[in-house]
């Protein structure tokens, strides 16, 4: 994400270049999102897939496919793209878990270890709470959703968030995030 | 529109700051808002979970250095959330921004005397014990005193008893024994705990029992602080009766009383003397109103009852004399219980897989008269985690278990390199033992379930193919390294070896920071890999020492991997790096004088960097006394003797190394190298070939074969061998030797091209030892140049120049009187 620097190439420009077949732009975009999304995904992946290599593979694979298939992506900014990619990875993780459940374990030992272990965040907070949180995130309006994902899940700075949401200052971004968190809590209350 | 307090709290969550939830709820008007606040508190937890992920994993390149620089902090510790309140202050989960790890931080409400806090912090930080929470530091910042320590995950004994009911006597005895050992360590450090209670003992998920809240600990017999010591520290029901008297002081006996109350509580969920406040409690003691333990929990083993009653004696002098005595008595109860049970059989690694044996725990045996054991081999621990990337854990643990056993001087223990060949062997134990030349085998395997490791280990008597002892050890990841010391103690016990006090001390290891342990295990595997991976090994060993400054073996290994890297460093920071590696080695020795590798590291610094040959010889001899089965120390010592031209002695020591570790390719290569220096090229080649048999494709062996061929004038073979080595690892030190062989073979264009490629790599930061240019000059007949470069190399203490007295590549210079003068100046001869 551009660090609040208007001269930096935005992700949307890169996306445009990828559509016209620019492989370097694809790499640049991956460099931009892969580390952050991998860290995020490492919290969401179950134990069997939590290895750095596995996480990286799943995330990279999903990113490449998603970006290539984006076609017309009418996004307002980088934050929207980040939130979109997070959603794509989340879907992929769910697919992987479902797929995995269909594969019989190789041996009894394998079964005890690989049995659908919870992800670190599930382990910490329980599946029920995380699902309620995810549903609430999905119900937020677009800007609030991007703000929460960028700050809370991806660890972006307020300056970055201001740039991606088109806000005048980091302080303004902080206010958007704060209000978005209260909306999130309200949505979670409805969803409980 | 959301009310202001909620928005404000959300702002704190977004900033990663601590929220005062109680205060905030007080400012809310409706129950609906309170419900939203409840949800917000859950959001705060989820946010903290994500922040932990950000902190624990490598940062994205475009992440600002500290995205949460605006969060609440105390010094270098960023406060994450509140984990508890106590009479002394508040405990936070915090992030140590310097060492990049999670810690528990206790901030005191009132600002006590800063000197007192610092003094106490220093005392507490000195205690390193598996069952005592590790204190990292203490400080007073902005008038707020705080102590930060290891973050322990688990349940308090109070919570366990209250939610799951009282423990069985053996469970309680086992936990009590661990707490008593923890107290012993605290008392031995000259401190008191003063607040032994079930709320202060945590059982981690892996089963490790940890005594917490040392903040209440006070210095023994410190008159100045008597008032505090005898004051309110200690939760009333756990307080010894003498503390309720005015002017009384806490002693080790009052801690023993607290331990007695804990033992009482664990089996009954009740207290011997109860009262709602200090006055009631004092009165109850005065009236002698106490509940006998037999009534609180009927049917306890008589030794348990007797021990608790003694610990609870109103008269301090009639309690067990020390916490160590309590530990011993409790251990007796545990063992008496264990001996009544036969453990189930379980499968081990390949060697043991041939025998599915049922065995008793070691405690079940009446120790038979055993023959004096002299040799034992640890077979590579099997990685049964189902995750190939965890192989380094199994390999690292094997190596640590080997080094722990090697501390016992009555034992000869082949190194990991020696036993490595048996990793996938299906040969029967008798044959394996015969090949390794040992009397006993230790086999083990690890499996992992989330944060926990389970390690199964057994001692096998190859003569009968049966297991003499077996144990399953379950630990959090952080306890796995220290568990190896425990296993070594068990093995020694089973083999009825008498350990000296120093050996016993050497086998006491505290649990390590999990990240430090992981870095250490990874580095152990890397350091033996290709030369090009040394930097990563050094980085990981350094990380381990930063996280665990008391980790002697990590310091020694760090010194050892740093030394060859110095060759590749620029002259500017060379001296500094030499001094640093010397300090690292000395630190390892001072932390653990019974650790052989510390001396091997110091000897290497004295030899390679200081060129202080006399002291290096002394240090290597000490290394061999401390650990006579250390093949590596033998090898390095033999290289020192060779450098000094004492080739006969060198060959003898290098042969011993090969005898100790016949299956280790490096030992054969070293012996071959010394034969090469002795111009005995056929024996040299024989050893290099043997190394290749042991380790097919071994690049160092191929490189030695190249040098031998070059010395014999067989340049085409020489080039082919060196290129084979380079194909495995494109190490600059080998690449430059290729240039020399081209020069000697009268292929100046190839030599020039190789040197140019090296110059380019030099600009990218990779450099070789410059003395190599002297050998090239010698090969080209430029004697003056060769001597000048060699002189510089001697002045700069370049490692490779150490063998110039015997190196065949230097032969063209030997007749020049300037070379004789240089040799004298170097101190080599």
Helix share of residues of chain B? 40-55%
Q: Which strand order does the major sheet of chain B show?
A: 1-2-3-4-6-5
Largest sheet of chain A: none
**What Rg of chain A is obtained from the alpha carbons, in whole angstroms?**
18 Å
Alpha-beta classification of chain A: mainly alpha
Give the largest chain-chain interface (CB within 8 Å). A-B, 50 and 44 residues
Low-confidence segments of chain B, given as residue ranges, are 56-71, 216-234, 340-371
What is the helix tally of chain B?
35
What does this structure look like?
- The complex is a heterodimer of chains A (192) and B (829).
- Chain A has 192 residues and is an all-alpha fold.
- Chain A has one domain.
- Chain A has ten helices and no strands.
- Chain A has helices at 11-19, 23-44, 52-68, 78-102, 108-114, 120-125, 127-139, 142-153, 158-165, 170-191.
- The radius of gyration of chain A is 18 Å and the shape is globular.
- Chain B folds into five domains: 4-56, no CATH class; 73-150, 2-Layer Sandwich (Phosphorylase Kinase, domain 1); 154-338, Transferase(Phosphotransferase), domain 1; 350-506, Rossmann fold (3-Layer(aba) Sandwich), CATH 3.40.50; 512-628, Serine Threonine Protein Phosphatase 5, Tetratricopeptide repeat (Alpha Horseshoe).
- Chain B is built from 35 helices and 16 strands.
- The longest helix of chain B is centred in the first third of the chain and has 26 residues, at 31-56.
- The model of chain B is unreliable at 56-71, 216-234 and 340-371 (pLDDT under 50).
- The interface between A and B is large, with 50 and 44 residues.
